[in-house]
Amino acid sequence: MLKSHKPQELTTRKVLVLINPFSGQKKALNLYNTFCKSIFLEANIQVELRFTKHANHATEIVQTLDIDCYESIGIVSGDGLVNEAITGLLTRSDRDRALRMPIIHIPGGTGNSLAASIAFKCGEPFSARGGFCRELTLMGIKPSYKQLRLHHFESSSDGHKCVFLSVVWGLIADIDIGSERFRWAGMIRLHMEALLRTMQLPTVAKYKGRISYLPIDDESLISKTRFKNNEPRKSFGNGHFGGGDIPDLADMDLNISKPKINTVKDSFKNRELVKIPRLDEPVPDNWITIESEFVMVNVTSLSHIGSDLPYIPSSKLEEEVLYLSLVDWSVVKNRFSIARMLADMDICSHLDYPCFHFIPVKACRIEPAPGAGGHVAVDGEPCTSGSAFQVVASSYCATVACRELRD
Questions:
Q1: Is the pLDDT of residue 46 over 50?
Q2: CA-based Rg of the chain, rounded to a whole angstrom?
Q3: What DSSP designation does 302 have?
Q4: Residue 393 confidence (pLDDT)
Q5: What end-to-end distance do the CA atoms of the chain give, in Å?
Q6: Structural domains of the chain, count
Q7: Under a CB-based contact definition with an 8 Å cutoff, are residues 152 and 391 in contact?
Q8: What's the CATH number where 317 sits?
Q9: Mean pLDDT, residues 333-354
């Protein structure tokens, strides 16, 4: 078995497994013992278990990890711990090689968006609400490695972050973060919070702000944003799900034994796919700007924003595209249409609502008006409310364990 980050043959297969014991309903360890442990054992793979103890602990672990000792990193948690691990790889001075270290996302949290997006890309059937740890663990045993595009987030209050999933402002973030009080309920907590929030519309989720973006003029790309997850896969076009192969290691320095640690800001320097102004500078003339009152504004890059929420099924793990989606109060008929749209997300029928706008972009900036409020979340983790922020795609990709396509 060859590691994607090291060309020579391994004598012993070894995986580092990070477990967040506080993730979701605090059942991550039980999920690992029930569904994953025996699979690694039968495959003769050594497992080193480590438990995260505080925020950003996974980042600290991965920043100093001897990547020559492991073929991959398994993460039994939600998307937040995946972000921490990828940030650790990104901020190493040997980041180009370190980002080749494969991530196995074993869905042990509440959202599990990356695991669901990987399964969807591969054509792997999975139980969105019943759990699919076994399926993703098996992918890690006999993997087909694929790229996962990384994006650069900059906030006026929270600085610089790495993003692979989403940056959301407004109702979706309110539901995600507000539902923490119902953590004991598992995935249903999101539906509980959504019901409570929509009952209060329009007195909540009315956020004034300015959105600026650099659009991508690609009619084929735009038309696919309305494709649902139950469409025949051939409808997406030849090769749509087959991209993201890992390039050759030939030109990469493989001999950095003790990497230095950089900031996220420095790590993204000169690696953004388009040059954008600083957050305190005006956007260029070729950007489009909208000012209004919004229900929600989301910037996403995966097909799913939760294991049971197929959001933009046409979105691909590796593509150099961000999907800006928004709901403007000026085109909303009434609060009941918002409630119905949220309820329809789990069957992908939110794509049918004319008030729901999707715009493929290269970069975007969101500037909440003073006092506008509304939660902001990056890959499911809260940021400072009311802060201006911008997101741009980068040339970096992390590596994730998938399997050969099942079409």
A1: yes
A2: 20
A3: S
A4: 98
A5: 25
A6: 2
A7: yes
A8: 2.60.200.40
A9: 93
Backbone angles phi, psi at 237, to 5 degrees: 105, 155
Contact assessment for residue 339 and residue 333, using Cβ atoms and an 8 Å cutoff: no
Whether residue 202 has a cis bond before it, omega within 30° of 0: yes
Residue 231: pLDDT over 90: yes
Domain range holding 121?
Answer: 2-149+240-262+398-402
In this predicted structure, what is the pLDDT of residue 203?
79
Q: Is residue 78 located within the same domain as residue 219?
A: no
Write out pLDDT tens, residues 157-194.
999 999 999 999 999 999 989 888 887 777 778 878 88
Between CA 403 and CA 138 the distance in angstroms is 9
| Same domain as 110, residue 30 | yes
Does residue 142 have a pLDDT over 70?
A: yes
* Integer Cα distance of 388 and 183 in angstroms: 28
Instruction: For residues 60 and 170, state if they share a domain.
Output: no
For residue 104, the cross-strand partners are 74
Q: Which two tokens stand for residue 280?
A: 């305190």
Joined together, the tokens standing for residue 352 give 């049918």
Q: 165 near 78, Cβ under 8 Å? A: no
Q: What is the rounded CA–CA span in Å between residue 147 and residue 142?
A: 16
The Cα–Cα gap between 399 and 167 comes to 21
The candidate with the shortest Cα–Cα distance to 90, out of 103, 109, 77, is 103
H or E segment and range at residue 391: strand 389-402
CB 49 within 8 A of CB 78: no
Q: Which run of H or of E encompasses 153?
A: strand 144-155
